Amino acid sequence: MRRLLLPALALALAAPAAAQQTVWPDEGPATWPVRPTEAAITANDLRVRLYQYAHDSMMGREAGTFGNIKATDYVAAEFKRLGLIPAGENGGYFQNIGYGPSGFEEATLALMVAGGELALRSAWLPLPPGLGGDWSMAFRGRDLPVVFGGRWGDETPLDPALIAGKAVLFLPPADRPGRFFATTDPRAAGARVVLVAALDATTGLANFALRTRNGLHLDPVAGAPAGAALSDSAAAALFDAPLTSLAVGAAGKTISGRWIYTQGSTEYPVRNVLGILPGSDPALKGQFVVVGAHNDHVGMDSRGGVDHDSLRAFNTVLKPQGANDRVALDAVTPAQWAEINGLIAAARTIRPAQQDTIFNGADDDGSGTVVMLEIAERMVAGERPRRSILFNSHAAEEKGLLGSRWWTQHPTVPLDSIVAAHNMDMLGKGRVSDVMFGGPRTVQMLGSRRVSLEFGDMIDSLNAVRDEAMAIDYSWDRTNRLNRFCRSDQVNYIRAGIPTTYFSTGYSRDYHQLTDEARYINFELTGRVARFVHDIALTAANRTERLALLPADEQDPEARCGG
């Protein structure tokens, strides 16, 4: 019975990617037969929106691609149609985040000791910004005196005047020489260049330091020194005596060098989309309640696609949490193969095989995005809240929570004006057949008491008196299984000390799979969650007093995810 599935999968992988219709930039925008939405938050409105937002023509909405441009254009157009005030940059709805290929230009890399050039990779490597210390993005210097600084991270005094404007050499920490960048040494302040004799002990540093990668742009740190790792022999050549015999502050030879770390951009901008519904209370409208979701997903399948029904059948039986689950094919039992093939056979009775090449991201996070838009439409049509509501469509969550990190580092409204934030990610499943503790009114909530106990109390009190009360699942918040809390945008608000709650209906078999399509969404449950989040945000916006915060040392450190 096992052999019945494997040929189907092999055939799927061999089929051409063109089996699904896509719309490329030179073909113009896709069009759909779209009916108008209404002021109320309804399952039908969510369905209309999501079948557009998770359409094949969006090409998986990967950050930095044309598909994501189309998706964010849609969000901005809806913000404009609803009359939200632009809250991005330059008077518009968009905030372009600094994202793209970053790395050293190898043609600029050179380091010389007393006139002799060191060999790149084997004798030295520049340290990229963001690796441990706040290293400068560029260095150019000639004949800089070298001073011995002792061992990196120890407490031996080093006179700042001895290293000001010079190069300072440190031995690596004795306990972890290959992880010197995990600590900082404030004694290096004021130096032009910091050299650490740790290259020989640091595995894989060349690949990390010299590889160009897409990532979030770093802000230059004023006055930061440049950094370089040296081999033991290159470090020894800087002094006429053994390094272990030197006193801290000892003078050595001179170095000259140059390197530049560049930060480029993707072909298409990566952007947050922001709009504000102004508050009605003159005394409170300068404060904000954030309602957000991420606008991106993971794009197209580079392998050429798989058979849709075969993949979903396999995941139904063996991967109930989609990409979170790992399954070895040789561990699958005959009974499991029989169940999988039975599901495939049932699918074949109603439709032919379908080659799938697009990660539509209907649940992740098309569902959160359309809920955000429905909440905006409901609030615009209703009585204006006292505080302002900031709707934030976060970019590049799938790249590492980058849009929310960029926005909290470069906010378009003052961070201290935000009284509460709501992040919604994967609100489309939640049936008992999808998730543990699932049901028609179930919602998973994380984070509501990590910064403010009062935020969680407010939500529970509100839920107790609503006609449409929800069954709140706090279990993920108590255990943080799969590092759950730290895998969506709420973590960056928590790091900023903002009371924040994460709403989800949970991981399902379609998580980060080609099968995450609108046809599998539970729109009735999504609508109930949307109305719940609407009521919470409205309550937070209408309170007379701001939510009380826990003292900083009592806020849940696990919520900070080590950052």
Please tag this protein with its features.
disordered N terminus; 563 residues; alpha/beta; Glucose Oxidase, domain 1; 9-stranded mixed sheet; 10-stranded mixed sheet; Aminopeptidase; 21 strands
Q: How does this structure look, described?
A:
The chain has 3 domains: 1-30 and 306-356, no CATH class; 38-98 and 268-300 and 359-560, Zn peptidases (Aminopeptidase, 3-Layer(aba) Sandwich), CATH 3.40.630.10; 102-263, Glucose Oxidase, domain 1 (3-Layer(bba) Sandwich), CATH 3.50.30. The protein contains 14 helices and 21 strands. Helix content is 27%, strand content 20%. Strands 3, 4, 5, 6, 7, 8, 9, 10, 11 and 12 form a 10-stranded mixed beta sheet that branches. Strands 1, 2, 13, 14, 17, 18, 19, 20 and 21 form a 9-stranded mixed beta sheet that branches. Strand 7 (138-151), helix 4 (160-163) and strand 8 (167-171) form a beta-alpha-beta unit. The longest helix is centred in the middle third of the chain and has 20 residues, at 362-381. The chain is an alpha/beta fold. Helix 2 packs across helix 14.
Concise overview:
The protein has 14 helices and 21 strands. It is α/β, with parallel strands linked by helices and 563 residues long.
What is the second-level CATH architecture of the largest domain? 3-Layer(aba) Sandwich
Uncertain runs are 1-33
Number of strands: 21
Distance between the termini: 49 Å
